Amino acid sequence: MRKFLKIAGLVLGAVVLLLIIGATVINIKGVPTYEAKEPVFIVDSDSMRLERGQKLVSMICADCHMGKDSRILEGGNMDDAGSAFGKIYIANLTHPTTGVPSYTDGQLAYLLRTGVKRTGEYAPPWMPKFPGMADEDMRDIIAFLRSDHPWLTPSDKHVPPSEPSLLVKVLCNFVFKPYPYPEAEIKKPVIADKIAYGAYIANDVYQCYSCHSADFTTNDEFNPEKSEGFYGGGTPMADLDGNPIKSANITFHETGIAHYSEADFIKAVKWGSRPNGEPISAPMSKFSGLDDEEVAAIYAYLKTLPKIDHKIK
Ligand code: HEC
Ligand code: HEC
């Protein structure tokens, strides 16, 4: 028995030592880099593109990248992220040598879809990826980011690089990998194809599932519908005062939004008010830039999903 304990002790000691060495190596190595690629991606620009691009950027990117006081997309601290992830700094998109002007259109499309920056560095999970976004929407976004709109006034504000924690470094080495860049054009469904259009904007563009499923760590950005508790809510988050809040179940179960009419849903998503008049709290934003027809398409799509029995509060 004593001999067994001694051997077991030695084995355990060796395992602990290996883990410490492994953690140290990953801590020094950091987030991995990949081959930087520049696919051919041609972005033209006209007033319709810029208008649509502004709408997409205002509802997707501005939440994080907009300077609170400056109203310029110059980034800064991400103050609502837990310290378990390290120190997160949001990139200054307008910076002449490190922001959007330092990227070609192909490099930007590559970053937004795969997560690999023009330098080959991998953008950690706090920068979302859009592997299923249609070419047309991607062009609208890039065209707008290159426009002379006031939000894009060049700013030389220096934003330091993020300092990911060991946990994030380990996850980026073993769990999170760049998504493959699509080989063919990704086509946008037409709005007349209501359910397909609703699925596309809810999952691939505005990523409603990313907050409305079980947890950020079990979401699948590449195959959103494989995310755990898809649209059943419960992701722990914080409101504007830093108080804990959980995302809502927005499947059509009675513990979710079975009581919502289409008109109720439009009011909730665009104007942040529940059918009984109660306000919907941050971090849910008001998607006021969506057309009623688009929100109705999301409603039609959510109706097709399995109803999840999950009471949130
Ligand atoms: C949830 C917050 C969030 C959203 C939403 C977001 N970003 Fe980011 N973005 C970040 C953070 C944080 C970084 C810094 C990444 C890092 O730490 O390396 C970043 C980095 C970037 C970079 C710089 C990459 C580099 O070379 O350093 C670009 C360009 C960018 N984002 C564009 C966008 C665009 C375009 C959108 C909208 C389609 C968007 N982001 C949406 C948080 C966000
Ligand atoms: C950044 C995270 C986040 C994103 C993205 C998000 N939501 Fe929400 N949403 C929340 C949270 C948190 C709540 C619960 C707020 C509360 O309890 O007051 C909520 C509540 C709701 C409600 C109210 C449900 C109820 O119980 O009455 C609806 C409807 C809704 N969201 C729809 C959407 C749709 C549609 C999208 C995409 C266009 C979306 N949300 C994107 C975080 C998010």
Structure description:
This protein is mainly alpha-helical. The protein contains ten helices and six strands; from the N terminus they run αααβββααβαααββαα. The chain has helices spanning 2-29, 47-60, 62-65, 105-114, 135-145, 166-174, 194-205, 208-212, 262-271, 292-303; strands at residues 76-77, 86-87, 89-90, 163-164, 236-238, 244-246. The strands form three sheets. A two-stranded antiparallel sheet has the order 1-3. A two-stranded antiparallel sheet has the order 2-4. The chain starts with a helix and ends in a 10-residue tail after the last helix. The structure holds heme C (2 copies). One heme C binds next to α3 and α4.
Bound molecules: heme C
Total beta strands: 6
Major pleated sheet: 2 strands, antiparallel
Number of helical runs? Answer: 10
Secondary structure class reads mainly alpha
Q: In total, how many domains does the architecture comprise? A: 2
Unreliable sequence segments: none
The percent range for strand residues is under 5%
- Between the first and last Cα atoms, what is the distance in angstroms? 53 Å
Overall residue-averaged pLDDT value: 94
N-to-C SSE string, H for helix and E for strand: HHHEEEHHEHHHEEHH
Helix share, percent: 25-40%
Overall spatial form: globular
Supply Rg.
Answer: 22 Å
Question: Strands of the biggest beta sheet: in what spatial order?
Answer: 1-3
